[in-house]
Amino acid sequence: MSRAKGRGDGAAGALFDQGWYRHALRRPSPHWDARPAGVDADLLVLHSISLPAGEFGGGFIDDLFLGALDHRARPEFAELEGLRVSAHFLIRRDGALLQYVSCDQRAWHAGASSFRGRARCNDFSIGIELEGTDAMPFEPAQYDSLVALVSALIQAYPIKAMAGHSDIAPGRKTDPGPLFDWPVIRRASGLAASAFPSHEG
C-alpha cells in the first residue's frame, strides 16, 4: 500500500489523514480498491470531465463517482448505466476541491493505460479531475486549487511525474485537452521538465 512520506509528522502529516487531504471536501466513493502490495503512488494524472458534456455546476459528476447516477435522468446517460468509475479528486469550475478516494488506495480513473512502459496506471497514480472540456480554458480558480493540491501531494507522496489522460491512453482519451496550461503546473510543481511528457514543457 502506498504510504505518505512522514505521515503524522511534519507538513505532510498535517496535510493528509490516512490519504485524505485536509483541505478537500470528503465524498467517499464505493469505487476503489487496494493498490498492489509495495506499489507507491508516484504519478499524477490530470483529467477533465463534464456531465452532461459541456455543462457545469450540477451534481451529476458527484453522482457518477458515488455510484448514484440515475441513468434515466438524461438520454445520454443510458450508456453510463453500470459504469463504476472514480477519481481521487475533482476540482470544480469555482475551484472547490472534492476528494472521493484516499490517496493510499486505488481509484478507477485511468482505464486501459500505460506510462513510460508501465501498464495499469491506476496502480501507481493519483487521479485529478478538472471540471471542464477540451474546448474551453480552465478557470483561474481551478489552477489555484490545482497548484495547492499538487504541492501538497508532492510533499506527502513520492511523485516523480505528471501526465494527462491523453498521455497514458493516447487515441482513446484527449483530456485535459490542448487548452490546459501545462507550464503553469510545471513551474509550480518544482519537478524537472523530464517529469512531464515532452509536449507539455
From TrEMBL:
Record domain N-acetylmuramoyl-L-alanine amidase: where: 29-177
Cofactors that this protein relies on: Zn(2+)
Pfam family of the protein (one): Amidase_2
Annotated Gene Ontology cellular component terms: cytoplasm
Gene Ontology terms describing biological process: cell wall organization; peptidoglycan catabolic process; peptidoglycan turnover
Localization per Swiss-Prot or TrEMBL: Cytoplasm
Keyword Secreted included in the entry's annotation: no
This enzyme's EC code(s): 3.5.1.28
Tagged with keyword Lyase: no
Main location: cytoplasm
Keyword tags: Cell wall biogenesis/degradation, Cytoplasm, Hydrolase, Metal-binding, Zinc
GO molecular function (one): metal ion binding
Catalyzed chemical reaction(s): Hydrolyzes the link between N-acetylmuramoyl residues and L-amino acid residues in certain cell-wall glycopeptides
Stored PANTHER family: 1,6-ANHYDRO-N-ACETYLMURAMYL-L-ALANINE AMIDASE AMPD, N-ACETYLMURAMOYL-L-ALANINE AMIDASE AMID
UniProt record similarity statement: Belongs to the N-acetylmuramoyl-L-alanine amidase 2 family.
Protein name per UniProt: 1,6-anhydro-N-acetylmuramyl-L-alanine amidase AmpD
Origin organism lineage: Bacteria, Pseudomonadati, Pseudomonadota, Betaproteobacteria, Burkholderiales
